[in-house]
Design a protein that fits this description.
alpha/beta, 5-stranded mixed β-sheet, 5 strands, globular, binds NADP nicotinamide-adenine-dinucleotide phosphate
């Protein structure tokens, strides 16, 4: 589906609702680094729709259907360290990743009450070597391997007992070899 297009989201939902789905990974995202003044209105719409409002609409439909079926599910949001770390010229992107995380943190209790057995996980990765930087001049040499990140994410959600968990995968910038630390719990916003 194209998350920036409501019709496309509805169409995709009508297709996926035929299948029993137990894991909702909120992973899609686009990234922009440029001064706020240089974001076009289209950029703002694209970032907010892809990273936040589009997935939220899909989740709404998915959640509604799961309530009707009384089927619990796991919600896993791939947010970003950018949700809590201040980064120059990434204003709209960082705000979208925090909005995603804050939505899930607030929704987790509601989800577990409505569909007991459900759980939510918010993952905040640091820089990964992915297509998000395609065509942009970013040195990803010391960035994390997304496969190592995916493995940790999967292990974390399999071991999770609590309703809501926050997992931070923070790059070891001193080593700068792709290694990272795993930390849990809330982080204050605005860290430089
Ligand atoms: N890479 C990093 O350093 C980093 C760090 C922290 C967090 N993250 C987060 O990790 C998540 C995954 O990103 P990634 O780094 O793996 O980048 P990626 O390789 O570019 O993957 C982005 C994904 O988003 C999908 N997507 C983009 N626009 C879409 C749209 N309009 N409708 C539907 N799907 C759309 C893409 O689908 P198609 O392939 O079909 O286009 C792709 O599957 C994002 O939420 C990002 O914010 C990334």
């Amino acid at each position: 589906m194209d998350l920036t297009d409501d019709e496309s989201v509805e169409k995709a939902f009508s297709e996926v609702k035929r299948y029993p789905i137990d894991y909702f990974f909120w992973n899609a995202g686009i990234w922009r680094k440029l001064p706020f003044v240089e974001h076009s209105l289209k950029d703002i719409d694209a970032i907010t729709a892809t990273n936040f409002t589009g997935p939220l609409k899909m989740l709404h439909r998915f959640h509604e259907a799961h309530i009707l079926e009384k089927r619990p599910y796991r919600l896993i949001a791939i947010s970003s360290v950018s949700a809590w770390r201040v980064r120059e010229h990434e204003t709209v992107y960082c705000a979208s990743k925090d909005a995603q995380a804050v939505f899930v943190l607030n929704f987790a209790g509601e989800l577990a009450k409505e569909l007991p057995g459900s759980q939510a996980t918010v993952v905040y990765p640091g820089g990964m070597k992915t297509e998000i930087f395609k065509g942009v001049n970013v040195d990803t040499t010391g960035y994390m391997d997304p496969r190592s990140v995916a493995k940790i994410v999967w292990d974390e959600i399999q071991n999770q007992k609590e309703v809501c968990r926050e997992v931070h995968l923070v790059r070891d910038k001193e080593k700068n070899d792709g290694s990272f630390f795993v930390e849990h719990g809330p982080k204050p916003r605005g860290i430089k």
